[in-house]
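Lab notebook, bench 4. We co-purified these components, and the gel suggests they stay together. Before we commit to crystallization screens, I want a quick structural picture of the whole thing.
Request: model the full complex, all chains together.
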Amino acid sequence: MTRFLLVRLGGALLSIVAASMLAFVLMRLVPGDPARQVLGQFATPDQLAAFRADNGLDGSIVEQYGRFVGNFVQGDWGTSFASGAPVRQLIGQRLPATIELVLVAFAGAVASALALALVSTYRPRAWLDRLVSGIAFVGMGTPPFWLGLLCLAVFFQQTHLLPGPDGRISPDLAPFPDRTGFMTLDALLAGRLDAFGSAVSHLLLPAFVLGFAMFAFLVRVLRASLLEVADEPFIAAAQCKGLSRWQAFTRHALPNAALPALTASGLVLGQLLTGSVLVEAVFDWPGIGGLVVHGIANKDYTVVQIFVLLSAVLYVSVNLLVDLLAAALDPRISLHAGTRRRRRDAPRAAAAAPPTARSEGA
Amino acid sequence: MSEQLLHASGVTIAYGGVPVVHDVTLTLHAGERVGLVGETGSGKSTLAMSLLGMLARGGEVVAGSIAFAGRELIDLRERDWCRIRGRELAVVFQDAGAALDPVKSIGWQVAEAIRVHERDASRAHLRLRVAAALEQVGIPAARAGAYPHELSGGQRQRVAIATALVHRPRLVIADEPTSALDVTTQAQTLRLLDDLVADVGAALLMVSHDLGVVSQFCETTVVMYAGRIVEAGPSPELFAQPRHAYTSGLLRSVAALSDPDCRRLPTIGEDVLAAATADREAR
Amino acid sequence: MGVTVPTAAAPPLRARRRSPRRDRALWTCVGIFALIVLAAVSAPLWWHASPTDTDPLAALQGPAWAHPMGTDQVGRDMLARVLGGARISLLAASSVALVGGSLGALLGIAAGLGGRLLDGGLMRIFDAMLAFPPVIFAMAVTLGIGVGLATACVGVALSAVPYVARVVRSDVLRVRNAGHVEAAHALGVPPAQIVRRHVVPHVLPTALVQIASLFSFSIVAIAALGFIGLGAQIPTPEWGTTITEGSALVLVGKWWVSTFPGLCLLIVTAASAVIAERIRVRLDPRNRSGRALP
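Here is the predicted assembly.
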């Protein structure tokens, strides 16, 4: 078991290191000289050299990389060119907003995907089949930024049902203490129901838009899984013991179907990361995605670079976690000798999915 | 003779409108052992599944009635089926490995079978019952936490038997219970089944294509072909002096293997098959 | 009489093995797709407006007969822009799919057939690339090389290469371990011929499926990059860029500038995804679970 863990951990670490090199190289290819951009065209060579030395832009690329990595692990993530604030501080400030959004979107997507997949596979009907398939395909093809704009147009601009892109909460509400960083929680903790309501209503549209693509993807995976498992004899055997069809479905089909879906959900995180960039741009949500978009617009590449690296770290870590979880939950996967023997291909196969398995552009 | 337990009369089953079982009449008495034999596609499994209300999608009983312990099974609501299945009617499938949930331990699955009909059973009580059930089929109670893939085929089949008998049902339907096992394990499993079924006093309907097993195990044999019952009667007589040409054809096909003078494997002639099919149609 | 016994674990309605001719979903999508392609390509013939002609007097007019999709803030006809965007997106997505797919397939074959070193080396590189969510990787590439539609295409193609390569590689490994390749090798058949005769035919269906899925992925990926400003630049009528241009307008009620391009985007992507899916189901019948999704 430990050997298995170490092997996987080692692999993940290697991936991250390689990814950091890749990210670094890509970023350094950026044409244009950051020093000159920041200091302006009248800067003297000395000033330029000083700027470069200060920002780790001198020396060979290997030296730069080494310095970069050293700083990164120590917590020094550089300084934003545009705002002058340390990148780490910027990210720290904006992280809770993104986490709140992502969590709500994810929870909503998983719950609805589960419900829809269950209902549509329990009593298969042709029209339901087609409807859910249609939703899944449309959902995966819907660009989140467009959906966001559409929702804003309908729910905000035309009908004024929901708030527009003015952040996480209505600006004219009295402030309350920031304890967890999550608006909704903090409002509840402060006993402010009006603020809570406002925070929730501001969350609704962005979370829906972010979660929609995920929902479409998960519905497909879960349905496919469930349809396969529903065929298996042990479901019928469970009914022969006296369980109702629904009981057999939820107690036996669902757990078996969830396993392959679990591995695929690691890919969902990729969508979340990309989606949050796009959705936060549309709704002007004060999260990390918004930071990146502004960074791109302002040519503030330190920020973007850190974001790219962090998303790689997160992606690899979550996939590792999901793999470990799937291995722990599936009794058929033997964790010995650093290898995995399994009876069915199902849990692994989804991980090698090609681009369609991820929501396009999200 | 003992009381009539199951009486199916004039049962016709169709899949998507195409009949696969024609006008079958079958009676089982309490404690009786009936063997249902026939080749693949004869409709024997379909008939057996209809007794459990477990026909695959598209299948329905289009005619006839099935009375079990005085109760009409056709048109029964699922809620009532759930009360009967596992408690009065039980089934042992052919491939026990496929009939067990791969991600749950065998102990959990046996406990589930108990819990379904004994809602208030405490955890301790369940554990005792599970241990007893497993011991009864020769699996040490310590292995209750094992998963199906960790057991051998024979052991899995024994778990299936334990699960089926846990509520002492009145009728056990065994659908090719030993076809997936090797010969030695077959003998063991059958012996076990024999003992336990006798102990519970259940009637047994054994669906099989293995004439040898059926002749030893079941006091009555029913022969099916093409969805119809071709011959039925007490096993010793049926096997010694088959009355229908198809039955004799079947027996001849088996006997040939031990006959040193046999040069060509006997087949069941076209004329016999035609006769078997036409037989019923004429009535 | 028609008495029904309650049915049990019902066999589900899955990929109906109908003949391709009767697959309604497939043909509907092919029809829609073909219609859009045709309309886009032939637009200059039947639609008088051009995507770049500005007409400030006609700015921000809603959908009407003269301008079925309205006009944008400088008076450009939206229908022309959407159709122009279609030409761009379709061309870009096709190139990305073909180039990315072929490159991925080639590398996959190389990794699958090559020795430990080549295979290991390539897989490490892919692992590094796969550590990033694809669009973010494309974003990094585009930032690195320089923004623009061409570089966005390169970025998207590169981001998809490892996925294609991995799938093709596992196919190649399977073929390689199959008896007939070993036999051919033992008989002294030259490697190039082995590849041509034995490996490629097995790998071709997979590669085709990948290319098809890559197509629908890249349409949205390129648009996403355009939306954040890394892809096609204003005033190219690429769909993503157009949506950005219209985003502020949505809040003041001028919804048509962003809505129509996005709608088209959605339709084309969904249609091509369905087509790709159908191709996959037909070309790879042993693909019951995993790989891509049913």
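Chain B touches chain C through 18 residues (CB under 8 Å). Worth comparing against the SEC data before the next meeting. The mean pLDDT of chain B is 86.
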